[in-house]
Write the structure tokens for this entry.
Amino acid sequence: MYWDTSALTPLFVTEATTPVMRHLLQDDSVVHTWWGTRVECVSAIARREREGYFPGEGGAHVRRILNDLYLTVQEMQPTEDVRLRAERCLSLHPLRAADALQLAAALIWARDRPAGTAFVSLDDRLRLAARREGFTVLPPTPSEGTPSTS
């Protein structure tokens, strides 16, 4: 499975989607994601720290959870191929630049054959773009049912 930032964040910051995302993680032996995802995750933690979301040393604890997760993460590196695919994605889908980089990295990971591979995201625009590119998008919404993945 390829995981974007919105899918990884509930693994270390408790949200309503945390149980679902933890369940998906149990089914994935290696998390694949974009090189910039870690920075986006740290940004999410820092924003919540500024907002007072974590009591006491909670922010440091969450950073340790992120660090532990990243011991097994496989990152798609920022290459020319990723940049070119991101530019193509921006012309085809209403995405922000960071989301286009996520989708482009996932396409490289899938060797441009996304059929039968899973893209894990909670971002509606990115989910739609990934589905249009041919990925199976997880987690399924109630209206989508439960797809099979490989």
In short: Helices lie at 5-12, 18-26, 37-50, 58-69, 80-92, 97-109, 124-133. The two ends are 8 Å apart (CA to CA). The first helix runs from residue 5 to 12. The chain has seven helices and five strands.
